[in-house]
Structure formats: structure tokens, C-alpha cells
From TrEMBL:
The keyword Cell inner membrane does not apply. GO terms for molecular function: hydrolase activity. Keywords: Hydrolase. It comes from the Bacteria. This is HAD family hydrolase. Pfam families: Hydrolase.
Amino acid sequence: MERAAVFDVDGTLVDTNHLHVVAWWEAFRQAGHPVPMHSVHRAVGLPSRDLIARLRGEDRDKDRDGELSAAHKALYGQYFDRLPALPDAGTLLRKLRDDGWSVVLATSASGAELSALRRAIDADDAITATASAEDVESGKPSPEPVRHALELAGVPAERAVFVGDTVWDMEAGARAGVRCVGLLCGGIPRADLEAAGADAVYGDPAGLLASLADSPLAPEA
């Protein structure tokens, strides 16, 4: 039976979390709503509307949300031509493909942003499918992105592992009923990832690749 390795992208395969932090920080600053960078970092990985709600509160002028999202998109877009893949990200995906896993991306990115991320990873030959923001109504920590990824792979939850770098990833995977692997390269502490549902935690894709035989993504005998 097929197995699915589902991957978040930002902060998991591509080193973008702190670029998002700076872009959001500047978008809020330009709008006259300065927020601490550490607070932005803890919110990265949420859909834009949920990130804004977390940082500005439910009593904000919601009519301005679109302007903030557009500003973030424009600021972050300046980096599209030089997004850095994390060490061994593409090698890890190809190894999993060779081990019989269906590799599926589950990301809030879409359009030009998703294309830039895939160029950075440079492993399209190893990716079976992509569940993007355009495919679901609710982003992480809702389980919907992970469940959609499983539908694309045609794999039940018990035959899947979700790899991510934020508590929102771990919560989404746990709610979808899959085993979760956390990576520290997004900047979230190990204890937080474990508390949110991570079954195992590694430093980055290279660390996971080096420990693959003893991980939830180990090859089947």
C-alpha cells in the first residue's frame, strides 16, 4: 500500500520564516500598527487573516486586512528570485520517493510564491502533488490542508507522516490523524513542537535525512 510523506514548505524545506517575519513587520509598521518581531514569528504559518487577527485582535478594523496582506505579499515578493532551500531539502524528498513514499506538499502558498518555493527546492521530480492555499477553505491549524494532501495521494491517515516546523503544522497533522515530525529550522522550540503533537523532532531536512532509518519516515522492510 502507498505511503504519503506530507511536507509543509515555508520554514520546513525553504528558509523563509524570518523573511516572512520582516515582511509582516514592515507591513504592520507602514500601516501604523507596529508589532514586536517575536510576536510575528510565533504567528508565521497561520493564514494571513488569522495571523492579522492574532496580532491585531478581533476588535481591529477588518476592512484594512486586505491592505496588510497585500503589503506583506509585495514586500515578501522581493525575495522570490533568491529564496534559499534548507540543507538537503531536495535530497530528502528524492530519497523518500525512492523509498516508496508519495511526497505531497501542503502549503499556504500559491501562485508565483509557490512557484518560487518549488524552484528553490528544485525537486519537482520527487513531488507527487501539492495542496495549496487555493485548494482549501481553512488553513493550518485546521486539518483540512493535510486531509486534502492525503486525498491527492490516495493514502489513509495511518499510512502518512506530516513534516512541519510550526505548532500550527503539528496541530493540523495531529487533528488529521497522521504522525507528525517537527523540524527546528523554523525557529520554534522543540518543547513547543512536541506539546503540539510532534512524535519526533529533528534540526532540519539534513538532520532528518541523516536519521531517516530511525524516524517515522523509515523505509519499510
